[in-house]
Amino acid sequence: MKNFFYLFFFFSWSAFGQEVTNQTEIQERSYHDKIAEKACNCISELEIINDVKEALTTCIISSTNKVHEEDVENKYSRDFTVEGIRSHHKKVRNLLIKNCSIVSTKN
User: Fold this and answer.
1) Please, are residues 52 and 20 in contact by the beta-carbon 8 Å criterion?
2) Helical pair 2-45 and 52-70, crossing angle rounded to 10 deg
3) Is residue 56 a contact partner of residue 96, using CB atoms and an 8 Å limit?
4) Are 49 and 102 in contact (CB under 8 A)?
5) Which of 23, 45, 59, 105 could link 39 by a cystine bridge, Cβ 3.0 to 4.6 Å?
6) Distance between CA 68 and CA 50 in Å, rounded?
7) Cα distance between residue 67 and residue 38, in whole Å
8) Distance (Å, rounded) from C-alpha 1 to C-alpha 90?
9) Ranges of residues in the chain whose predicted pLDDT is under 50
């Protein structure tokens, strides 16, 4: 009986544990999607872009701040380490390249 309890507990925990992980991944994905959407709008509003890297960085930073200001009900965790900031910018940049026509088109 004791073994059955442990077996049941293990399978329940693994099933619910995966659901929580998937839910976190979905929330994180939508977080970066929101930022990428706002960054795309920011880039489209720029009249002249002299330095593409600087424009992307500026728009990503301002868009991140807007998402945190506007979506106060979600407590987004911020990773202020160098690796965390680089990872965040890389995810948003990849979404911009994938979804933002202004960034992905070549002239």
Assistant:
1) no
2) 120
3) yes
4) no
5) 59
6) 28
7) 8
8) 51
9) 3-21
